[in-house]
Every structure is written in C-alpha cells, then in structure tokens.
Amino acid sequence: MFEPLPADRILAEALPEGSLFAVGGRVRDELRRELDGAHVALKDLDYVVTGVGAQELEERLRRVGRVDLVGASFAVFKVTFDGCTVDVALPRREKSTGAHHRDFEIESGPEIPLQDDLGRRDFRMNMIARAIPSGEIVDPFGGESDIRARKIDILTPKTFEEDPLRMLRAAQFSARFGYALSPQTRDAMTQSAALVQSVSAERVCDELMKLLVQAPKPSIGFELLRETGILPFVWPELLEGVGVDQNEWHAYDVYRHNLETLDSVPPGDLVLRLAALLHDIGKPRTKDGPHFYRHEQVGGDMAAAMLGRLRFSNEVGESVEHLVRQHMYVADPDLTDAAIRRFVRRIGVAHLDRQFALRAADIAGSGLPKRDDSNERFQARVYAEVARKPAFSIKDLRIDGKAVMDRMVELEIAPKGFRGDKRVGDALQYLFEQVTERPELNEPDTLHALLNQHFGGS
Questions:
Q1: Cα–Cα–Cα angle for 174, 180, 186, nearest 5°?
Q2: Structural domain boundaries of the chain?
Q3: Which of 12, 27, 191, 381 has its CB surrounded by the most CB atoms within 10 Å?
Q4: In 3-state terms, what secondary structure has residue 408?
Q5: Smallest Cα–Cα separation from 77: which of 1, 127, 14?
Q6: Which residue in 157, 220, 168, 225 sits closest to 191, CA to CA?
Q7: What CATH number was assigned to the domain covering residues 150-234?
Q8: Contact at 8 Å (CB) between 316 and 273?
Q9: For residue range 139-183, what is the model confidence (pLDDT) as tens digits?
C-alpha cells in the first residue's frame, strides 16, 4: 500500500488534481522495496507536473515555500519547504544533437505527454512515474517488469549515443542492485564504448564514486566496463594487471587480485575502497620474475596521477596514495616498543584503521587461506602503544619551537629577537628521536636538559 510522503501531500494540495507525478530513482526504489525487499533509503525527490503552464506552476509553488528556477529554458524549479528541497519540472522531450551531454534540443511545456518525458530517461526501470497522491503507477515502457526480472534494459540502441555517461550508470546500477544487463544493453554499450571519451572527468568521477561507495561488490561494475570495452577509455591502468601472474601466495593475477581486494572492503569508505583497488597497481610495471620490487612506491605515484586525472578530490588522492605507499609494512608482533612507535609515526595515527583494514582486505583478496594471526597480534601491539599516548609527532613534544629559540638566545648561540632558522627544526627533530626511544623523557625539564646537550651547553 502506497503511503504519500509529507512533501507529496503538501505539493498535491498546492497543485491541480491529477497533475502531480513522482518520477526518477525514487519511484524505482519504492518498487524495488515492494517487489524484492531491497533496503533502500529514498533520497532525491523529483516531480513532474502536467497540464500546468510554467508561470502558473511557479505561482502555486511559491505558496508552498522558496522557489528557485534552475532550468530557465525547460522550467525546473527547486522548491524548499519544511527543511527539504525537491525538484519540480514541466514534462519535456529531448533530441540529441551531438555526443556531449549538453548537446540536446529540449522542448518543455504542459502540452507534452508524461509518456514522452519518461521515454527520454536512461533505462526502462527509470521510466516509471507514480501519480500523487493516489499512488497509481504509470509505466508505459515496462519498467516494473524489468525490476521484477532484476534487469537493466534500454528503450533504443541510441541511448548511449545520446549520453555516453549512461554506460557508466549501467555498470554502477548493475553492481549496486545486483541486476543483469539485457543483451541489447550490453551490445549497445560495446558498440558505443569509445564515446565515453566525450564525457567530462567530473561526471565520470561521480559515477565511479557511486560504484565504489555503494555497491556490495564493485568488481561487477568494473568487469562490465572491461567486457564491453569501456574500461580502456576510462581507467586503462587497471587492465595492465590482466594476466600478470603472482607468487605462490596469490591465487589470482594482479587484475583479479585487485578486484577481490576491493570487494573485501565493506561499502561506505571511498578512500579505503580506492586504496584496495589500487594497492598493487604498480606491480605490472615492476615485475621481475616472481618479484615486484618497490611496487608500492610506483603504485603510489600512479595512484596520485590517476585520481588527479579522474578529478577525485586532493584529500582523497593524498590519503589513497599514502595507504598504497605504506601497504607493504612488516607486521612483526615482536618488534620493540620504539620500533612500534616509529611504525605509528610513519603511518600516522589517523591512517592506522584504514591501513590495517587494507591489509585484511589484501589477505582476503589473495584467494588463499589466511596463514597465521601475526597481523592481529601486531595490530594489538600498535593500538596498545597508541593508548599510552607517547609522542608520535614533533607537535606532541612538551616544548615547542619558541622554547628552543629562547634557549638558543640564553646559550648565546642566537641573537636577541631571534626568529628561528634550520637549527630550530634540527633541535626539535633531535628531541623527538630521543622521546621515541624513551617516552619518559618527554617532560619540559628533561627536554631543556637535552637541548643543552644538543647545543653543547651546560
């Protein structure tokens, strides 16, 4: 039984009876919940209003809340009320005039049938509307049947010519929902694969993020992109690992191992999933017999370059690069306490959880049974040391650069008004090394005494 949302009721009261329809992913996901029990949260609320002109529609919406016109040429209004923002549009039809997503002739108006508006969308499962507030389904193209069959199908082979980004959407929908591509969809993607080069990096990044963050098994999407010939145009470096065999500790080639490692990371963490996908990306370029010397360093360089090219944020790129560079650490639970502290310094406290999660995924992605519990015992040592709160960086020292400068003036190795030079940083580094070996030295009086020794004072 359909139950209108609060926003549905408010809009329906402001508009003529029978004119308001919910459209887009919201309707698809409502049907997914009803038909196959999918656990999905309804996010974007999109509506189409039929039989009402743009001016009248705007006037009626202003009685509901704040209205912003975002599609002047085809009447799309963002309406904000009761703490939510929804999109309300007149029906429109589109005609492709080129290979780019903005290359369309758009006709919009109250006289355009709802069916035409639905038919311009990407897949049949998204060509469904729901009358508000009655809840009646409007399904002229059989989208509900596709949802029942867990299938992704297109209305015309020109779908991907009209907007090549839809090929990436097909891959991420397939991985997120567990839906299969129809033969027609797969064939059309293969035929149009090269057109993905016309899509901006920002739009590609958006779809890859949905695949990486939301799909239970992102490998399904990447494999579809590979099988249809799209992946070489989007992320060719991933394919360098195909057929690159590894040592006896791995059941898969480098490409498959990277995907298995990716799938071993739970959804939600973009940085960790990217690190899993790319942790061994440098292996094909460093293969020397059964060895891959410094592949983590080569991989770190590659990760930074690739994620920049694909327009992932600098913060994401830097975090992924760091995890890739550090993923070959030795997990020896018998290291000294000082060695454990040096490990934490190198990785960084903020990165520890992800670094350990990446190691666990790497092991799971090997395709072979886990050998022992050394990683778990090493992690326990690390977390126990972190809990003791020793100095893991220079900023954790109990004195700062100003104290060092003041001491240098007192020792007459710097003039009054001294504002620092390289010696200050060297002194702080010296103190940091001392407290890394012996955390109990991190007390102001002791550190001042160590400064005297460092500068040759009494």
A1: 90
A2: 6-149, 150-234, 236-388, 395-455
A3: 27
A4: helix
A5: 14
A6: 157
A7: 1.10.110.30
A8: no
A9: 999 999 999 999 999 999 899 999 999 999 999 999 999 999 999
The two tokens of residue 109 are 């108006």
CATH pick for 6-149 out of 3.40.50.300, 2.70.40.10, 3.30.460.10, 3.40.1050.10: 3.30.460.10
- As a whole number of angstroms, the distance between CA 66 and CA 10 comes to 13
How far from 85 is each of 49, 131, 153, 329, 337, CA to CA, in Å?
16, 20, 30, 47, 54
pLDDT digits (tens, 9 = 90+) for 61-98: 999 999 999 876 778 999 999 989 999 999 998 766 55
Helices 295-309/314-326 angle, 10° precision: 170
The structure's pTM equals 0.89
Secondary structure, 3-state, 60-93:
HHHCCCEEEECCCCCCEEEEEECCEEEEEECCEE
* Spatial distance between the Cα atoms of 16 and 56, rounded to a whole number of angstroms: 11
C-alpha torsion sign, points 375, 381, 387, 393: negative
The highest-level CATH class for domain 236-388 is: mainly alpha
